[in-house]
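#struct-queue
[09:14] JT: dropping the first one here, sequence first, then the C-alpha cells:
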Amino acid sequence: MSKLETPQPAQPPLEELIHSAVDLARVCMRMDVAFVSEFKDGRRVFRHVVAPDGEAPVKPGDSDRLDESYCQHVVDGTIPAIVDDSHVYPVLKRLPATEAMRIRAYLGVPMWLSDGSVYGTFCCYSRMPSFTLTDADVQAMTRFAELIARLLENRVLAERAIASSRERLGSVIDGRLLGIVYQPIVDLADGSLLGVEALARFPTEPERGPDLWFEEAHRVARGAELELLAIELAGARLAMLPPHAYLALNVSPATILCGSLAARLAGVPLARVVLEITEHAPIGEYAALADALAPLRAAGLRLAIDDAGSGYASFRHILQLQPDIIKLDRSLIRDIDSDAGRRALAAALTGFAKATACRVVAEGIETPAELATLRALGVDAGQGWLLGRPAAIG
C-alpha cells in the first residue's frame, strides 16, 4: 500500500444494515416491534424482526397465512396504513395475529421491488393504542421500506430467478419433455457411417439453444438430472441404429461423478457407447474422474474429449484422461482450407492422436474444401451439415 492510500473501512454485512434500518424505523415511529415480511406461496414469512425488550412474539423464518395478516389488508387497501387501535376495526379484531402478537396500534406499508412486484411489507406496531401517528410517519415508513427493498433486491431477485429456473427445469425433467436428434459421424476416407452423436432438443419455452438449457440446469444444481435424462432417452434408441454404429453421448464431469451414470447405462451395450467430455467443462479431480470411468471403460465404453483446440483445458483433459477419441472443435475446422494456423494445429493434434492410438473426429464440416483439407491431414472421421444433419430416428 502506498503512503497516499487510505484503508477503506469494512462494510457492515447486509443483515446488519437491514437490522439497523428496521430498528431505527421502530424508534422513529415510537413502536414496540418492527418487522419485514415477505409474501411467499400464500404465506407471510417474517424475515427481520426487532423488539428491544427481546419479547417479539415471532422470529425470523416464522410464517402464517397471508390472508389472515395485517400485511395483506394493507397491500389490498382494505385497512389504512395507520391503525390507531386495532379493536376499532372488526376485521382486525377477528384476525388471530391481533391477539397472538398483541397488536393495538399499527403502521405498515408495502415493499416494492424495481420489477414492479411486491416483496412484502414493512410494519411496526405497539401493544397499546396510539393516536399520534400521522401521514408524515407513513411517508417516513415508506422511505424506510424503499431503502430496505433496495438493500434486499439483488438477493431476492436472484433467489426468485433460481426458483423460477428450478421450476422450469423440473417441468422438463419430470415431464420428460426432451427431444433427441442424432447427427451422423462418418469415416472421411469412404463416407461410411461410424456412429451418431445424440443431441438434446427442447420443444418448450423459452426458445434457446440446448447449451443454454444445460448451463442453466448446472447453475441451479439440476444439471446431472437433465444430462442423465438425455442419456437415458438417447440410449433407448440405440437398437435402431445399424449394429456396427456407436452412440456418442455428451456428459459433464459432475454427472460422471454423481454416481448415477452407470445405472442409466444399464442394459446398454457399452462397447457401442462413447462418452464425450467437453473442453469447457471444468475438472477439479482428474484422478477421481478417471476412477469413476474405469469400470465403464473396462466394460468397453470409450471416452472422447470434445471441443479440442478451442482452449487450453482440452489438452489437460487429453493428457490426464487418455481418451480413445479426440474431437476437433468446429472453431478449428471453420475455414481450415484457407487458414494455415488452423491447419497446423489440426495437423499437430492429428499427429498426437495417432502417436497415442487415438482416433480423431472433426466437428462442424460444412464445405467440400474443409472436407478435402481434413482428408489430406489424415483426420479419421467427421460430422457436420455437409455430411449429415441431426435428425430423429425411430
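[09:21] JT: and here's the second one, same format:
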Amino acid sequence: MAEQPEKNIDEQVAPTIAAIDLGSNSFHLTLARLQHNNLQIIGRLKEKIRLAEGLDEQHMLSEQAQQRALDCLKQFRHRLHGLPQQQVRAVGTYTLRKAKNARQFLQLAQQALGYPIEVISGTEEARLIYEGVAHFQLSKHKQLVIDIGGGSTEFAIGEAFEPVLLDSLQMGCVSYSQKYFSDKHLNDENFERAITASQLELLSIQDLYLREGWSLTIGTSGTIESIVEICHGIGFKSNTITLDCLLTLKQQLLAMKHFDAIVLDGLAENRREILPAGLAILIAIFQTLKISSIETSPAALREGMLYELTGIEKIFDIKERAIKGLLNKHHVDMDQARRVNQTALVLWQKVARHWQLDDDQSRLILSWAARCHELGLNINFSKQQKHGEYILKNTDINGFSLQQQQQLALLVRSFRRKFPLHRFDTIDNKQDKQRLIRLARLLRLAVLFNHRRRDFDSPDADISIDDQDTLVLTFSKGYLEQHKLLAADLQQEQYFLNKAGLNLVINSE
C-alpha cells in the first residue's frame, strides 16, 4: 500500500465551514477553511433557481419554483458531507422575505438541506455583504458597497470593518426583468420605465448617502461582475465600470431589439434574460448617487457569513452591540433591565438541565428578552408588551435573523398579564416551541420578582419542576406573609399560567 502523505498541522486543525445563500436568482454554496488567519475557499457550487420568478401577484411562491429550490438543496446536502451544524450557515434573502408561503416552504427546504435556514432582513443582508467585502480587501478609504441581487439591491457605506449606513431597496434584476421587460423587447420605453422605477426607489436614500459621502465605490455579485466583463469586452478598462460604459452597452442592447438577439463577449447564457434589468438598475444608481466609477470585489454575502463562522468577526459581539443600541434608542431603564436579566439567569440556572435549556442559545435569548422587555414602555404602560413585540419584529437588528427576532419578540409579548399561548403556534419546530414557552415562564417570574424596581436580595425561594412540567416555587416559612405584595403578584401569575395550562404551584415550607 502506498504511503499516504502527511497532513500539515493547519489542515488537521482547520475545520471546513460552509455558507449557503438562497438568493432570488441563484443558490450558492461556498466551502472554506481558516488558514493562517485567512479565509481559504475550497469549493463553490452555484445553481440558477430564479426563485423570484416563482412569486405571483399575491406573493405566493409557485410549486415549480419550490421544486427547483428543493432539488438544488438536496444536491448541496450531498456536498456538505455531514458537517456539524455549528459549521454551516444557510440564509434566505429577498424572495423568502416576501413570499407569504415562505414558512411552509422553509420546512421542506430544511428537510432537503439537513440544516436550519434563516431568513435575514435586507439590512442584515447588506451588513453581511459589507463584512465580506471589508475582510476580503481592507481599504483605508470610506467605501460604498453595492450588490444588485435578483429581488433587491443592497447598499452599505463604511470604514474598515464598520458599516455606518445599511439599506436594502426593492429593485432586483429578476423582479425588474419580469416587470419591465416581460415582452423581451429591448426598446427605449422598457429601459426608461426600469430606470425611472429604480430612481424612485433610490430617492429614499439619495440625500442621506450623498451627505455621508464616500471615496471608493465597490460593486459585487453576479450582475455587476457580468457587466464588468462585458465592458472589458467592448473596450473599457478592466475591473472598472463607468457610466460611459453602461450607456454604450445600453445602446448596443437597443440595437439588438430583442432578448433572443443578445450576444455579447463576457456574457454567460444564463444571464442574458436579466442583463437589461440589471443594467437599468445600475444606470439609475450611477446617475442618482453621482458615481464616477465602480470597482469590483469577488467577495459578498457568503464571504461575510464565512468570516463570522470562523470567529474572526464575533457574531455575539455584533448582537450585543445591536441590543445595547436598541435599549438606548428606546430609553429603557438600564438598571431595571440589569435586575430582571440577573434574576432571569439565576432562575434559568436552577431549571436549565431539567428543562433542557442548558445551551448558549437559550441562555442568550432569555438574557436579551429580559433586557428588552420594557422596550414598549415609553409608548404605553398598559400595552407595553404588545408595543415591545412590534418594535422587535419591525426593527432591523444587526446579527439577528428574522426568525430570531420573531422569537425574541414572542418572549417580550409574553412577559406580563394573560399568557398568549396561541401565539407560539407560529413556531413550527415542537422542541423550539416548548423551549420558548419555558423561557417565557422564567422571564415572567424574573419581571415579577423585580416589580419594586430596586436592588434587593433574591427571594428566599427554591424553584423546581415536577413530572407534569409544573413549575413549583417553595418559599421559606413566613416569607410570603412578610412580602404581601409579592404574594398577591404570585397569586395573579398563578391564575394567568394555570388558565393557559402551564401550572404554577406556590408552597411555603
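[09:30] RK: nice, looked through the second one.
[09:31] RK: The first helix runs from residue 9 to 13.
[09:31] JT: good to know. The first strand starts at residue 17 and ends at 22.
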